[in-house]
C-alpha cells in the first residue's frame, strides 16, 4: 500500500494544498496525518477545510491539544491566532482526534512518542541545551511506556510513524515535498 505522511502542517494551507496536488499527480489517494495541524499564523481555517473534507487517519499533536485545552488568554501567539480563526466545528473535530491510532492493521501513529505528544523520541536535550541522539535503550523505553516493559495496550511490534516533532531539531528548515512509503 502506498500512502503519504503529513505532519506539522501548522496552519499552512498553501503547503498542504501543494502536497495534496503532488499526491494527486502521483496517484496517492491515502495519507496519514501525525498532528500539529492548525497552530500557526497562516490559514488555520483553510487547513481545516482541506483536511476535514478528507478521510485521512489523523492523530492529535501537542499544539492541537493546546487549542482545545488551554484558555485562549494563556496560549502562545501562533496557537491563539489559530484558535481565533477556527470555528466551533473545527474545534470539535480536533477534540475528536485520538492521541494515537493503529491503521492498515499494523501501522502505529503518534505525534511525538507513544506516551507523550511533547516528548522527543529520537533525541535528548541535555541540561546544557545540547542535543544528542537518544540511545537505543532510551528509544525502546519510550516505545515500552517508559517502564522498560511492554505496554499491553500498545502494539509496538508494529511499524511506528511519528511526527518530526519527535525530534529535537524539528525546527530546522526542511523541504516540503511528498514522501511515500512503498
From TrEMBL:
Annotated region (Disordered), positions in chain: 159-182
Top-level taxon of the source organism: Bacteria
Pfam family, any one: Metallophos
Compositional bias ranges of the Basic residues kind: 169-182
A GO term from the CC aspect: cytoplasm
Sequence ranges assigned to domain Calcineurin-like phosphoesterase in this UniProt record: 1-124
Molecular-function annotations in GO: phosphatase activity
The protein, known as: Calcineurin-like phosphoesterase family protein
Organism: Pseudoroseicyclus aestuarii
Classification of source organism: Bacteria, Pseudomonadati, Pseudomonadota, Alphaproteobacteria, Rhodobacterales
Amino acid at each position: 500500500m502506498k500512502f503519504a505522511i503529513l505532519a506539522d502542517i501548522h496552519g499552512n494551507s498553501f503547503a498542504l494544498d501543494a502536497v495534496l496536488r503532488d499526491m494527486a499527480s502521483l496517484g496517492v489517494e491515502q495519507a496519514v496525518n501525525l498532528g500539529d495541524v492548525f497552530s500557526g499564523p497562516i490559514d488555520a481555517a483553510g487547513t481545516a477545510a482541506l483536511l476535514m473534507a478528507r478521510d485521512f487517519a489523523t492523530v492529535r499533536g501537542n499544539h492541537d491539544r493546546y487549542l482545545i485545552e488551554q484558555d485562549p488568554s494563556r496560549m502562545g501567539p501562533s496557537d491563539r491566532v489559530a484558535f481565533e480563526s477556527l470555528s466551533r466545528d473545527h474545534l470539535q473535530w480536533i477534540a475528536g482526534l485520538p492521541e494515537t491510532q493503529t491503521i492498515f492493521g499494523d501501522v502505529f501513529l503518534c505525534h511525538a512518542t507513544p506516551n507523550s505528544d511533547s516528548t522527543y523520541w529520537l533525541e535528548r536535550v541535555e541540561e546544557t541545551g545540547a542535543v544528542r541522539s537518544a540511545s537505543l535503550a532510551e528509544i525502546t523505553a519510550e516505545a515500552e511506556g517508559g517502564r522498560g516493559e511492554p505496554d499491553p495496550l500498545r502494539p509496538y511490534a508494529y511499524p511506528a510513524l511519528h511526527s518530526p516533532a519527535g525530534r529535537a531539531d524539528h525546527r530546522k528548515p526542511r523541504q516540503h515535498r511528498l514522501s511515500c512509503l512503498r
